[in-house]
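Example 3.2
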Amino acid sequence: MCDLIESQPAEKMSKMKKLRRTLSESFSRIALKKEDSSFDEICVTKMSTRNCPGVDSVIKPLDTIPEDKKVRVQRTQSTFDPFEKPATQVKRVHSENNACINFKSSSSGKESPKVRRHSSPSSPTSPKFGKADSYEKLEKLGEGSYATVYKGKSKVNGKLVALKVIRLQEEEGTPFTAIREASLLKGLKHANIVLLHDIIHTKETLTLVFEYVHTDLCQYMDKHPGGLHPDNVKLFLFQLLRGLSYIHQRYILHRDLKPQNLLISDTGELKLADFGLARAKSVPSHTYSNEVVTLWYRPPDVLLGSTEYSTCLDMWGVGCIFVEMIQGVAAFPGMKDIQDQLERIFLVLGTPNEDTWPGVYSLPHFKPERFTLYSSKNLRQAWNKLSYVNHAEDLASKLLQCFPKNRLSAPAALNHEYFSDLPPRLWELTDMSSVFTVPNVRLQPEVGESMRAFGRNNSHGKSLSNSKH
């Protein structure tokens, strides 16, 4: 299952710069074509790469993209990430990828009647999709070293959007992370994955237009400290696994799972976002960069220098996020460096050896003498709230396995006994159907919300019973 991609050697960088310019020119041609064709009909001009000899196609994942660093987000408890360049640190208000309106052309390729009214030949100045003036910026949500995210509004249909404006440099062209994110997201259509609606390219900027989602899991947990309602944890986790199962079946790894990259709508719908570090898996024997995943959610195999991994990389992140939602604190909040992060992991799961983790001694950064010898513990000893929920500890233990091949896959996790009390219809939903379309599936008030509501009602002279009517 661990299909891999070859990382680019340093001597290929000059070719990569040429490829950057080629791809940037391709986006320019896309922008010119948008006036006469729908977004789904646009194709990228022939691009010749080592893995992908020239083909005419819609934007597709590019295996030749090097492992450039991605804009990262600092939590309230900041972490030092040795793989991160200072220039890539970001200060933000909302999740970088609050994302877009879902617009599709009809099967005949024609615009819907509503859009035709806005962009008919009789009104040449009317806003159209694919045009910079089709969106109004409302407020800045965050800014990074290469992109700024705005809350915006579509002038075509009036819906809220998130505009990720990427600044282009003449010599460098379009950043590879942006190309990768756009190419992958364009082919992903799922209720639990953020939707990319539009791409706007100008000489100075590349703008990715996403559906707007008002918050993320990090902000949601900060708003409700001490751990989330157990039923809400279950629904969030189910949706996360549902989205991951979808992309893993399409041979795509997210590679940067963390609460900031999981958007939460006002109805409780969770959406995977920020695919700047995602990669399409290739054939076996190739390797990835180990410079991925924010430190707190980075698995021990990657921390120890492994460049051979597959879907098991994402599943470690799922386990960390699961524990954090239940316990109310990060599972392994390393504060210093990789050594400190590994010590925190081994303190709970035990220091590995060749018996518990075949091949660990061959990993580049594993030196037995550097680590304290710890024995494994029951997870409830580290995170007591796991014992409050049926089967939660068992599921967490099967996700948080040091040996990558022992980690539960997303489809297997969806069928774990932890989810046995959910309505069976949830497993029958189509890709684009929300879990909240199933009767009786809804978020519960978080701890303290009911009391706050009670206080507000009493301040207006209403009793709790009266407020229900």
